[in-house]
Amino acid sequence: GAGVSQSPSNKVTEKGKDVELRCDPISGHTALYWYRQRLGQGLEFLIYFQGNSAPDKSGLPSDRFSAERTGESVSTLTIQRTQQEDSAVYLCASSSPQLGGGELFFGEGSRLTVL
Amino acid sequence: DAKTTQPPSMDCAEGRAANLPCNHSTISGNEYVYWYRQIHSQGPQYIIHGLKNNETNEMASLIITEDRKSSTLILPHATLRDTAVYYCIVRVYSGYSTLTFGKGTMLLVSP
Predict the structure, then answer these.
(1) pLDDT of B14-35, one tens digit each?
(2) Are the C-beta atoms of residues B61 and B76 closer than 8 Å to each other?
(3) Candidates B93, B94, B101; nearest CB to A42
(4) Contacts of B57 (CB under 8 A, 6+ apart)
């Protein structure tokens, strides 16, 4: 597709369950970012990928959060043993070094609700 | 990355120009000014960026002061669809540097 695609768009889960969120970046974009946005709050950086390596994981809030990326393609954000405070919109973005890396293209997000 | 300061909210009448200010007094010589916006329930959208010269594209114009300590994003003819939170971010142009989003300015365009 032409843009960043995220799935699922909405996910409702019970506390303690594991969830996986998927991001398909724009083809050819080597950089991929995950952000989190709680209701009424700003964007929190979670993790950055360059290719399939993650040089910056500083934003992951706990060891329940992990992410991986296959080559320069799909990324999966996994949240284990979900808690109610994990409820948020999880946003993925990709960028190309040809654009200097500052022009990020965001997906529409995955809205996670933990009951 | 340098910190930015923006007013929390602004109002604009439909059809008028919206001028959104941003202060970035500690900007470094190699840092660019980026503007993004986030319409309700959508992901952020890139608008424009610049170093020191004024920039214009199909969405907006960016005016950067000569000392680069502040800038203004101009939406020349605001529409209701321009109602959004606007973020001003400074960042080095190349290499890895995450975009740090502050609280931004909530622009409300009214009929």
Answers:
(1) 999 999 999 999 999 989 999 9
(2) yes
(3) B101
(4) B47, B48
